[in-house]
Input
Amino acid sequence: MSDFENFLDYVGEINDLLCTINILNWDANSNMPASGAKTRGMQLGTLSKLAQERLTADEFGKLIAKAERAVASESKSSYRFRMVEQTREAYDISRRVPAALLEEHARNRSVAEKVWVQAKANNDFAQFAPYIEKFVALNQEMCAAIGYGDGHPYDAMLRRYEPGMTVTRLKTMFAELKNRLKPLLDQIVTSDVQMPIEILKGDYPADQQRAYCIQLAEKLGYDIGRGQHADSPHPFEISFTSNDVRITNRYKPDILAGGLFGMIHETGHALYEQGIDPQLARTPLATDFLSQYAVGGTSFGAHESQSRLWENQIGRSRQFWKLHFKELQDNFPTQLHEADAEQFYRAINHVEPSLIRVEADEVTYNFHIMLRFEIEMGLLDGSISVNDLPDVWRRKMVEYLGVEPPDDSRGVLQDIHWAFGQMGTFPAYSIGNIMSAQVFQAAHSQLPDLAVNLAEGRYRPLLDWLIENMYRHGRAYSPDELLVKMGGERLNAEPYLDYVEQKYSDLYQLR
Amino acid sequence: MSDFENFLDYVGEINDLLCTINILNWDANSNMPASGAKTRGMQLGTLSKLAQERLTADEFGKLIAKAERAVASESKSSYRFRMVEQTREAYDISRRVPAALLEEHARNRSVAEKVWVQAKANNDFAQFAPYIEKFVALNQEMCAAIGYGDGHPYDAMLRRYEPGMTVTRLKTMFAELKNRLKPLLDQIVTSDVQMPIEILKGDYPADQQRAYCIQLAEKLGYDIGRGQHADSPHPFEISFTSNDVRITNRYKPDILAGGLFGMIHETGHALYEQGIDPQLARTPLATDFLSQYAVGGTSFGAHESQSRLWENQIGRSRQFWKLHFKELQDNFPTQLHEADAEQFYRAINHVEPSLIRVEADEVTYNFHIMLRFEIEMGLLDGSISVNDLPDVWRRKMVEYLGVEPPDDSRGVLQDIHWAFGQMGTFPAYSIGNIMSAQVFQAAHSQLPDLAVNLAEGRYRPLLDWLIENMYRHGRAYSPDELLVKMGGERLNAEPYLDYVEQKYSDLYQLR
Output
């Protein structure tokens, strides 16, 4: 075998381990009885450790060095070059993080998750605080180990999840979001216009919702023959190769919207993964070494951009329900018999500042993220202490959204991310929102028939364009590179802000 | 950590890898779309390789040596002593098998399986022959590497699956079976007595069968809260710890018996695994290093003894259906409304020499095994050539069962075992039959109320006794040791033959 093939062979085994971790997690969330959790945790621990050992092995360094020589004269944007370049980056970063640090992180995590569940149930922040404290210390160590030059410790975290992104860029981005979304939100909350949200409530049996949702996913292009659907308490998408991409969802029997948009959201993630060139299977371009996921999407934010594009730009559009409401109504004839497409469109786009991130609408969502970004930065640079967290949270909620959590369960304890010790991934949600608008705009400018196709329910041309320009490349290009290749600019909030302003000014009859 | 703890820690990780392989296989058989098969194969290959590397590592040898010193003064029948002793045996055997040999075996297997499927479909033995040829050569090498002293090469294979078993013992055992079962079968086939098998045929919707079968499994003691049920083309039981033991089954909509007894059979396997002391999780006593399964049953044969005990001694007894037929009838009121318990009992115990092992009854089953045992021995010692296989098969079928396969698909190509390159596991089916009768006899002699309890549908006392005397020990004791501990003899065909003769003499009104 050539040096490059030896390199790929080694990476392939790391990818196998990461895919296996995905399968263990899929099973844990969709099939496993609760009694299996303890040994499953051991199995996951062993697999993670083995993946990490292989990622940081001296032997791997030698293989990478040889592969670097093999591709040295090739184009810097070729897949082969990128494979080696990205692996080198991941290898160097990983080698700088001591194994003992990762083990301590994992140990803290295995307890923190359970404590977080209890603390959230009991509204007892003090119970959880020591674990965040510990994670902050460990993550600070990790940032120092990874390195962030003259920047912010948070930059080190971003290198793991969001190639090309920095605190400086994020600060500008969130400032732009705030500058235009805050006045918009102020107008909306003082508006007299009401959305008919009551039509979403009623008797919506889970089985019927599930059946319709699966149809919808397939309509948008999800190939369930190369995947599977299951129920789980929290919806997610997970893949073990682009030929086996699964989605889960949950259905509340007394409300329609959650299940519906959860499904379209996960479908967006799945379309991305199913669209990756099968030739990239088991290569670095389908392996996220640094966050230990076997995924093909090029960053957390880019991945989120596609769940958002399908969920929001398509699924929450007037166009979409003009076309499909009849069908939805046929599936729920008694529940929806008095509603019409326009009412449904208005109901699903109801804006209301609320306490809970995952229930937030398109206008308020980014404020939830901004708050978390600022808090995570403060924790890592030491300007916010863990003890102050609940107060900081409440203050920022009031400042950004005008609502104050009555307890910490609905405040600082609401997300699981910190119980995993994860800091640095929240910005991906806002990056995704912004990027979804840029990508959708690019598609419109390059596909003259797109509007007509969407109006007539043909989603395949858009999907094909996304596959051709984005999905198939896997992790070969950074989000910025992809956006530029599509004929646009690097990440830029303007198209997203234009979209939100226009849509909600219309809905709430503003100006 | 102490030397013994270090040893357990290392074994725990091997167990994690083997459990993970089980989960990959479970998923492949119950959830995975066909398109995921290619990368799943790579994932399984990588995991097997890693497990094998760790099993044969120098480091492991040192840990075992230290653990041997740690337990040297302890009782030879203590769990701790057994853990080390069995690991030493597995380590030494594994170290003697070259990695290159295993890899070639795996490579041949990855192609052979597909070729076998085609060859079976096309009735084309010649297409498959080269792969068996290769496996015979590789398995001969493996036998030589493992070693078999003055014995038969097959003895080396038996060391992997059936502790304490030898070709000499098996030859005696099969001779005993043949001596008493052949005359019995001859009487049955010439008997005028007919079993009312037509009542098993009809419209038995899969959903209804599944619902009843799951009830039945739970009635016998399967804790579905510590497991799961799924459909799969071939029924199997698989575990990832004694707290997560799953079963699959298949239901033919035009016949009742297959699904029913498939389910009871897998339930028997599951009861064994669920009964293993949770303290043994991840230890050598819940890890079958040599066949790369993470199972707690002490041998293939011992495991099979429990599926057979529940399926045959309980599930095919007159007693059982006297008690439960009404309930079955209530589940299939139109289909079974003219039948009664005695008819049903007779129908499910119909004896008929047939071509296919998996469809065989209690009287003919062992002949199918005998034939395979003799052929595998002949292949390994060179007295049977691969080219002669179809003829040898036909000749032996006529000799033992009086039926001749009209084609190789229903002859030598029927089982998947050789497509896996597996030789040496078939005897486990007959060992299981024999052992099931010995265990059931021991239970009767030690539980005076057993007959009454079974007659009144209380299965828990039997299960508790089995857990106490067999299941909880995991792999700590050999099948022979377990039988002796239960107050009986080492493996001995007599109780089984008495049982079969008595049951079928009654059913067919012989003598």
